[in-house]
Amino acid sequence: MTDNRVHPRHQLDEVIHAPVRLSVMAALAGADRITFGFLRDTVEVSDSLLSKHIATLEAAGYVAVVKGYEGKRPRTWFSLTDQGRTAFRQYRETLQLLIGSEDPGRP
Amino acid sequence: MTESPDMDPRTALSEIDRVGRRVRRDRWWPVAAALTMAAFTAAFYIGLKAFPGTADDYVLPGVLVVTAILVLITFRRRVVDRGDNRREERTVWASIILAVVTIVLNRFVVPDGLTPWGVLVGVLPALPFMVLAWRTARR
């Protein structure tokens, strides 16, 4: 394989293209910010697994973490960075390309 | 859920849709907050004009109940949409401006007692909250 790989699957962002991280990115793309608890329940993973994947997305510059308090209760919010929104938009476009490249009429 | 490097594009897109729907469902809370504010604001201004003698007794308990409801909703709120703060701020300012209009009309134009005009003018400051609730629910 050379560097001239043109098939859309080569453009899939490996950071996003994992089930948990994909769900996290999809949830965050639909809002400005989301709490840790809501994200965990939506993605249906344990606290520790979510933290692990958030750390990966944070290291990639896709997710920002804000820790604070509401009243006396500690609360952690997550949001997508501009870089994360761009990456997710490109990821979706690549998925559409991949589906579009599948020709059902082909034998 | 585990890592799966060979995730099918259709599966990925359907998961994006599922999560998107789940996030949108949580918009019920800001809609509830906006409707609460609309109901209280309308009741306040209509009551003030229609029942000036008794409305005063209900203002403080009303404010306390509404504050408690809004605090509860704020704590329950787990998803904040983009631009929510800006929209809510604009809604409050619009309501304040319309409240001034209502006060002036109630003082100089609207007849005393429970009249259709009193109700219509009393609803004016609640309109921005109704619009906010409608727009949030529609997104």
CATH class of chain A: Mainly Alpha
Strand fraction of chain B equals under 5%
Q: Indicate the structural class of chain A.
A: alpha+beta
Largest interface: A-B, 31 and 27 residues
Q: Can you tell me the number of structural domains of chain A?
A: 1
Number of alpha- plus pi-helical segments of chain A? 4
Low-confidence stretches of chain B: none
Q: With helices defined by DSSP (H or I, 4 residues minimum), what is the helix count of chain B? A: 6
Strand element count of chain B: 1
What helical percentage do the residues of chain B reach? over 70%
- Rg of chain B, nearest Å: 21 Å
Which fold name corresponds to the CATH topology of chain A?
Arc Repressor Mutant, subunit A
* SSE string of chain A, helices as H and strands as E: HEHHEEH
CATH architecture of chain A: Orthogonal Bundle
InterPro entries (chain A): HTH_ArsR_DNA-bd_dom, WH-like_DNA-bd_sf, WH_DNA-bd_dom, WH_DNA-bd_sf
Pfam families (chain A): HTH_34
Protein name (chain A): Transcriptional regulator
Keywords (chain B): Membrane, Transmembrane, Transmembrane helix
